[in-house]
Design goal:
The chain is 52% helix and 14% strand. The chain has 228 residues and is α+β, with helices and mostly antiparallel strands. A hairpin with a 2-residue loop joins strand 4 and strand 5. Helix 5 packs antiparallel against helix 6 (151-170). It starts with 10 loop residues before the first helix and ends with a strand.
């Protein structure tokens, strides 16, 4: 009786028998074999895409890295520097406005002080002239009452009077005698009234003391006699 033929052994068994590793043993553990067309090949392609994707928002595209419109993230130090710059500019504007106000106040103060000094000088001059006017009146009376024998003394008094009157005129003092003019209470002081034939009422007849002005301001009104 002929013995039954044994079935042909599988290639894997033959390879194992011959000592060569089987195809299953050569593949890495935990990963399915890659086939030409199949589900395993698709999974491998997806794994490759996932590996190439950016992680945590990191830009790997060279076009995006070179794009000048993309602004880098601002750090806390840069934000702090910007805040300090804004604060410094605000302080600069405040100090500039303060300096401008101070300069304007100083200019106003300087002009006000100049006016006050000029007014004080005018008041002091007016006070001095008022003190000197009686001296001028007495010298004029002395000259008017001098007799023929006293012409030498009268000449000396006349020289003193001329110098004094010249000094007053150089200081802006001018005298006025309103004889024959209508009476004006703003510049005249009526000492008395007298009836005068051929004269209108309210006309200055005689001037007892001359009046004086300083730069248009009446220092002393003229003392006069007015027709009634």
């Amino acid at each position: 009786m002929t013995p039954a033929r044994r079935p042909a052994e599988r290639p894997e068994e033959e390879a194992h028998t011959t000592g060569e590793p089987s195809p299953r043993e050569t593949e890495p553990a935990g990963r399915p074999p890659v086939e030409a067309d199949g589900p395993a090949n698709a999974e491998a392609v997806e794994d490759a895409d996932v590996a190439e994707a950016p992680v945590d928002g990191v830009v790997t595209d060279a076009a995006q890295v070179d794009d000048p419109t993309l602004e880098p993230e601002r750090t806390d130090a840069a934000a702090t520097d910007d805040g300090e710059v804004v604060h410094a500019e605000r302080q600069r504007d405040e100090y500039l406005a303060l300096a401008q106000r101070t300069q304007a106040d100083f200019e106003n103060y300087r002009r006000r002080m100049a006016k006050e000094q000029a007014a004080a000088g005018a008041r002091a001059k007016a006070a001095l002239v008022r003190e000197l006017l009686p001296v001028v009146d007495n010298l004029e009376r002395a000259l008017a009452s001098a007799e023929e024998a006293e012409q030498g003394l009268a000449h000396g008094v006349g020289l003193v009077l001329a110098e004094l009157v010249g000094a007053l005129e150089r200081s802006g003092i001018e005298s006025f005698e309103p004889a024959g003019e209508p009476f004006d209470p703003t510049v005249h002081e009526a000492l008395s009234t007298r009836a005068e034939d051929g004269s209108d009422v309210g006309v200055v007849l005689d001037v007892v003391e001359k009046g004086y002005r300083l730069d248009g301001t009446v220092l002393r009104p003229a003392r006069v006699v007015v027709s009634a």
